[in-house]
Every structure is written in structure tokens, then in C-alpha cells.
Design goal:
With 358 residues, this protein is α+β, with helices and mostly antiparallel strands. The chain has helices at residues 2-33, 35-45, 56-65, 105-114, 138-144, 222-229, 247-252, 271-274, 278-298, 305-335, and strands spanning 74-83, 121-122, 151-153, 162-164, 175-187, 192-208, 211-216, 218-221, 233-234, 245-246, 258-263. The strands form 3 sheets. Strands 1, 2, 5, 6, 7, 8 and 11 form a 7-stranded antiparallel sheet that branches. The longest helix is centred in the N-terminal third of the chain and has 32 residues, at 2-33. The radius of gyration is 41 Å and the shape is elongated.
């Protein structure tokens, strides 16, 4: 009896782990096949803003599109102010609120900063410094300073926290202009004359009792935001509503219209400081644009204008002589006497001899 009891006890001990393993395997299979589990996994991978993650391919493409200006033998740094009230610059402003998966430039910047995907640097009057010392704190320098409501989410593994902001609380409608820093350069080694966008700075416009007040917010190196805006398509025409261009195309092809407010100079002065009068300021801006165009044209060989004029005159003279010769030939042919044909001889009737027949 005791032996039978020991046998049953030993059998139950051996069978119990097998049943538990089978039960766990069944639960795993059920969890894999469950539609709810699959749906929950996908939802957890979604991001709050809907912006795509920066893939390795996007990073590699960004590195290949980076323009190296370290070997440039000639370079001029230009600061422009892009007014979004102008129709040509409207693609950077609309839609003011995210619509059907589309958002304007500032909404994209704001969402990236709230998810710790993009770093911005403090705006300093007169210079820009893109180092750790001038990094801004998104919570203190942006959210708290602008009194924007947010929900803070602690970071994973002690990382930086992220923030959830309602789309209606993003002040994208108040950003009415941008500062654009660009470099016009000539690389003699590659024989390339091009323009590189270095950084952008959104400008917040607030209307109050004292009128409109503009506040530059922060600087963002363009190469840091370019991987995220290469797929942000925008509408650039009121006639063709197809979104055929991206925000990166808009900057790279220089489709915007911006007036020059400063050029990098030894005294670090703006054009308004050097030319306080509006007329003189406008003339200075046109002169700088002309200098850039003249330098670009001077890089390529152009024929002498006198030789071009002489060549044109000789071509005109040759053409006029050909026309005169053709006209005289036609006149000669017209005055030439027509050829008179001689009349043919008429055929006479046959002659018969008439003899008296005897």
C-alpha cells in the first residue's frame, strides 16, 4: 500500500511540470493569435504627434545631402527675414492647425521638440552659438515662458521627459516670420557655386495694447530638422493643388521670398544700423543682391560685347544681301521675254493628175 502511494506521488510530481508547461505554451499561442493583442501592440508603437521616426536610411540621406563649405574659397553669409504674410511664403504658414496629416513648419518643430527629437539653441542678439551651453530647456524656456498647458510624461530608464500638448495650444498661428541664415559659397575644388541654408529661427508675433511685438524664439540648425521635413509635403500653388514639393524642397530650391536684414561683417552690425533711412536701406539690399549675381556671372566666361555686336551686324548684312540677291533674281525672271513658238506648216491636200480618158 505504501509502495502504491509512493508511485502515485512520484507520478503526480512528474506530470505537474509538463501540464504547467503545456498551459503556458497554450496561453502564449492564444496571446499570439489574439487580434486584441496585435492591435494593442501596434497602438503602443504609435507616437503622439504622428511624426515618423528617424530611420538609418534617413540619417544616411541627410549626411549625403550635407553641403560641405569648409573648402570654399569664397563665401558670404546672409541673414533674411521671411514674412509669412506674403503669398509666396504662405506654404510655411498653412495649415495653421494640423489638417489631414499635414502641418506647417512651426507645428512640426514644436512636436519634435516636445518628443525630444530636436534640439534648439538660445537666440542671442548679434550672434549664434550652437553648443551645449546655449541649449534651451523646452519646458522652462518655451512651455512655461509662453504659458502653454502640457502633460509631462517621465522618460524611460531615467531619460528626458516628453510632453503632450494639445494642438490648439501650439502657437503656430502667431509665428508670422522666420529668420533664415544662409551661406553663398564657391568651392573651387569642385567648381560649385551654391547656397546652403544654415539655420532658421521662428519669430513670434504678439498683439497687445502697445501694438505688435515680435520675439525671436530660438535657432535650429537646418541639418538637424531636414530629415523630418523631407517627407512633409506642402501645396505651393492656388492653381495646382497637388502637393508636389516638400518643405525641404522649398528651402533647397529657395522658393521663398526674404529681404536681407544683415550680412556677416567685422563690426557685426545689421543693415538697419548702417542704413537707418528706408530708402538707403532698400538701395543697400538691392546692391547686395546685385553683388551676389555679379559674382556668380563672373565665374563663367562671357564673350566680348563688341565682338558679339560685330557678329550680329555681319549676320544681318549677310542676310540682307541674300534677300537683295533673291529679289533681283526674281525680277530678272519676271522681265525675261517669253519664248515665241513658230507656227507649224499646214498639210497640203494631195495633188491628183486629171487626164482625159479615151
Amino acid at each position: 500500500m505504501k509502495r502504491l502511494y509512493y508511485i502515485l506521488a512520484l507520478t503526480s510530481i512528474l506530470i505537474a511540470p509538463l501540464s504547467l508547461y503545456a498551459q503556458e505554451e497554450g496561453n502564449d499561442n492564444q496571446e499570439r493569435r489574439s487580434p486584441r493583442a496585435r492591435t494593442g501592440g501596434r497602438e503602443s508603437d504609435k507616437k503622439e504627434s504622428g511624426l515618423p521616426e528617424l530611420t538609418i536610411r534617413a540619417q544616411d540621406m541627410n549626411e549625403r545631402m550635407t553641403q560641405e563649405i569648409g573648402n570654399a574659397r569664397w563665401m558670404r553669409v546672409i541673414y533674411r527675414q521671411v514674412d509669412l504674410n506674403k503669398e509666396q511664403n504662405a506654404p510655411l504658414y498653412y495649415p495653421v492647425r494640423p489638417l489631414n496629416g499635414s502641418m506647417n513648419l512651426f507645428s512640426t518643430i514644436f512636436q519634435l521638440m516636445s518628443e525630444n527629437k530636436l534640439e534648439a539653441y538660445r537666440y542671442e542678439d548679434g550672434f549664434e552659438a550652437f553648443d551645449e551651453e546655449h541649449l534651451i530647456n523646452f519646458k522652462e524656456d518655451v512651455l512655461d515662458r509662453a504659458y502653454i498647458y502640457y502633460e509631462e510624461i517621465p522618460g524611460q530608464a531615467g531619460g528626458a521627459p516628453s510632453y503632450i500638448i494639445n494642438e490648439s495650444d501650439i502657437p503656430s498661428g502667431d509665428v508670422m516670420a522666420y529668420y533664415v541664415k544662409e551661406a553663398w559659397y564657391f568651392d573651387q575644388n569642385n567648381s560649385v557655386f551654391d547656397v546652403k541654408t544654415l539655420a532658421i529661427c521662428p519669430i513670434l508675433t504678439v498683439s497687445g495694447d502697445l501694438g505688435e511685438q515680435t520675439t525671436p524664439l530660438f535657432w535650429i540648425p537646418y541639418e538637424n530638422i531636414r530629415p523630418y521635413i523631407t517627407n512633409s509635403r506642402i501645396m505651393t500653388s492656388n492653381i495646382n493643388n497637388a502637393k508636389t514639393f516638400t518643405i525641404d524642397d522649398y528651402f533647397r530650391r529657395r522658393m521663398f521670398e526674404g529681404e536681407i536684414i544683415k550680412t556677416e561683417n567685422l563690426m557685426n552690425r545689421t543693415l538697419r544700423q548702417m542704413y537707418p533711412e528706408p530708402d538707403s536701406l532698400m538701395l543697400a539690399q538691392k546692391e547686395i543682391e546685385k553683388q551676389l549675381e555679379t559674382f556668380q556671372q563672373s565665374l563663367y566666361w562671357q564673350p566680348d560685347t563688341t565682338q558679339v555686336a560685330n557678329t550680329k551686324e555681319s549676320k544681318k548684312a549677310a542676310k540682307s544681301s541674300r534677300v537683295t540677291k533673291t529679289a533681283s533674281t526674281k525680277t530678272t525672271k519676271a522681265t525675261k521675254q517669253p519664248k515665241v513658238s513658230t507656227p507649224k506648216a499646214e498639210n497640203s491636200a494631195p495633188v491628183r493628175s486629171v487626164r482625159k480618158r479615151r
